[in-house]
Write a structure and sequence with these properties.
1 helix, eight-stranded antiparallel β-barrel, about 575 residues, mainly beta
Length: about 575
């Protein structure tokens, strides 16, 4: 059983929002299980180090070379962007089609236009300035964009007009490398206004970031800006959510079931569902419930809001499965659909099951970058939605320690990385809300607090100190998470033992798991200061998640064994 499917991060590897990323699956593309969709193009290592790609650069205290940090008063227009984006990933330049980029433009009374964050992957809150023309908008370059500091050295970054070129290089395996350089005879880019009201950038050139006239690996080509005024679902007051519901996804977990806790509420004939998107747990989608036919209809194309520099939409999805002889296993493809999700409800079992459209093998709920192409950051194949009943035990099960690694040789400021699994359910197999789950770190038996003074990456997130660490939190290279996996990088040099426990916090409710302690070799020391026990607890469930007795039913039974060290084994048993 896996609790945390995906978590939010940044948008830097094909799509890195919503954390442990599933690469986007393009329309009609087949994906081998466990193999990400291949939709990026590598342009080769940059000839010179990219200043923009350095993870430790910071904004200079003074942007006094002309960076525009505030736009004049004017009409603010929200725009949905799509482009061919270029960015740095592991010192390689990658190119990807991106959708749903969050743009904002300000039109002033004197015919000027200010475009915020013109490069989609760099959320610096600065502007470039253009002028309104008969064709649309014209921007003249170069324009200052950002002043950064790296190891006490200042770098001035500009936006400029760039063109593709090949440069001879005898040391390169191909004899040349490819890059973009400033255009000599044209330092302007025009965005032509289209019939649909969007603005389309001249596709011949790149809008790219430079330092000393050298391309820094970030840029946009074929950028399209579409004004839109969508707003997230407005939640009426007085909604009383039932948080016992679980979305079960048998397919996307492959060898196990992915379970996602959600809340369902109803008011004035409208059903509201929250918690579906792990990266935006407070986001809400809506539907209508037909009491005569016990069906819940959820419209597609629902706007959830902005996350970092992207707009996220909930889209319904349809998919198919087929056997591929070459790979010798099942393959699947899916696409977004304009049709609504329709779920049948069984009031006796309190279970929702999807209505499968003709010709489809799977029905998805997808959280998508934009709404014009299949570009998901998170998705679930809906097998069923069921109620797990009232939760009375809020203590999470005990974490699993994975590794303790000596990382001082990599960075002398650090000592060890401590890596472990945190699970999101209690001893009864009920799943707890991940936004209420935290963990504590113990060093030499004492509760440890991260501080911004010792870990500056916390300050960048607006955190002064942190003892209860949210399971969804990623902070630089110091606190990291992905699915059940979590880890911290520590600086203390006197570490003899490391411990971790999971914590559930909701208002006045605080429940803690046992604490697992290991030494710096990763060898077990104790669980809550006792010797590691080896006892286990076995439970049986039917496919709706209800606990059963072994002789209670035929068919598919889920056997769950929970060891007292927190480890879990899930088995599927078919009884006849």
């Amino acid at each position: 059983m896996r609790k945390f499917l995906l978590t939010l991060a940044t948008v830097m590897m094909t799509v890195t929002a919503f954390g442990a990323v599933k690469a986007p699956v393009k329309k009609n593309s087949a994906v081998k299980p466990g193999v990400p969709g291949l939709n990026t193009k590598t342009f080769g290592t940059l000839k010179t180090p990219s200043i923009a790609a350095k993870s430790t650069f910071t904004r200079a205290e003074s942007d006094d070379f002309g960076v525009i940090t505030e736009a004049p008063e004017g009409k603010t227009v929200t725009m949905l962007g799509s482009s061919n984006s270029f960015y740095i990933y592991y010192e390689e330049v990658e190119m990807d089609e991106t959708y749903g980029i969050a743009y904002e433009g300000v039109w002033t009374d004197n015919g000027e236009v200010y475009l915020k964050n013109p490069i989609s992957m760099l959320d610096w809150d600065t502007y470039i300035k253009g002028t309104v023309t008969d064709e649309g908008i014209k921007f003249d370059f170069p324009q200052p964009l950002y002043r950064s500091v790296y190891e006490d050295e200042s770098f001035d970054l500009y936006v400029d007009v760039l063109e593709y070129t090949e440069i001879d290089s005898p040391n390169h395996p191909d004899g040349y490398y490819t890059t973009f350089v400033p255009v000599e005879d044209n330092r302007s880019i025009v965005f032509t206004k289209e019939e649909d009201g969007s603005y389309m950038m001249d596709s011949e050139y790149m809008l790219g970031v430079t330092c000393n006239d050298l391309w820094q690996g970030y840029g946009e080509m074929a950028l399209n800006l579409l004004p839109f005024n969508a707003t997230p679902t407005e939640i009426p007051e007085g909604i009383d959510y039932d948080y016992s519901y679980i979305l079960a996804d048998e397919f996307m977990g492959w060898d196990h079931t992915v379970l996602r806790p959600i809340g369902i509420g109803e008011k004035d004939g409208v059903t509201y569902i929250t918690g579906l998107a792990s990266g935006m747990p407070e986001a809400v989608i809506y539907g209508t419930f037909d009491k005569d036919n016990n069906t819940l209809t959820i419209p597609s194309n629902q706007f959830l809001g902005k996350y970092y520099n992207h707009y996220i939409f909930m889209m319904s999805g349809e998919g198919e499965i087929w056997y591929d002889e070459y790979w010798d296993q099942d393959m699947y493809s899916f696409d977004i659909s304009d049709d609504p999700l329709v779920l049948n409800f069984d009031p006796e079992t309190n279970v929702f099951k999807p209505v499968m459209p003709e010709g489809c093998d799977l029905v998805f709920v997808m959280f998508n970058f934009g709404n014009v192409a299949t570009y998901p950051c998170e998705y679930y194949a809906i097998d069923r939605i069921y109620s797990q009943g009232k939760i009375t035990d809020f203590a999470p099960i005990t974490p699993d320690v994975l590794f303790v690694n000596d990382i001082e040789f990599m960075d002398p400021d650090y000592s060890y990385s401590f890596e472990f699994n945190i699970y999101g359910d209690n001893s009864e197999g009920q799943i707890l809300w991940d936004t209420n789950i935290f963990y504590n770190i113990f060093i030499n038996g004492e509760l440890f607090t991260f501080t911004a003074e010792e870990y500056p990456s916390l300050a960048e997130e607006g955190i002064d100190k942190l003892t209860d660490i949210p399971v969804l939190l990623n902070v630089g290279d110091d606190i990291f998470s992905g699915g059940n996996y979590h880890g911290v990088a520590l600086k203390r040099k006197d570490i003899e033992t490391l411990g971790v426990r999971a914590v559930y916090i909701d208002g006045d409710t605080r429940a803690e798991s046992e604490t697992v302690t290991v030494n710096t070799l990763g060898e077990p020391v104790s669980v809550s200061q006792n010797n590691l026990p080896t006892s286990s607890k076995t439970e049986l469930f039917d496919i709706t998640g209800r606990k059963i007795k072994g002789s209670a039913t035929d068919g598919v039974i889920v056997k769950r064994t929970t060891n007292s060290d927190g480890s879990i084994r899930i088995e599927k048993i078919i009884k006849h």
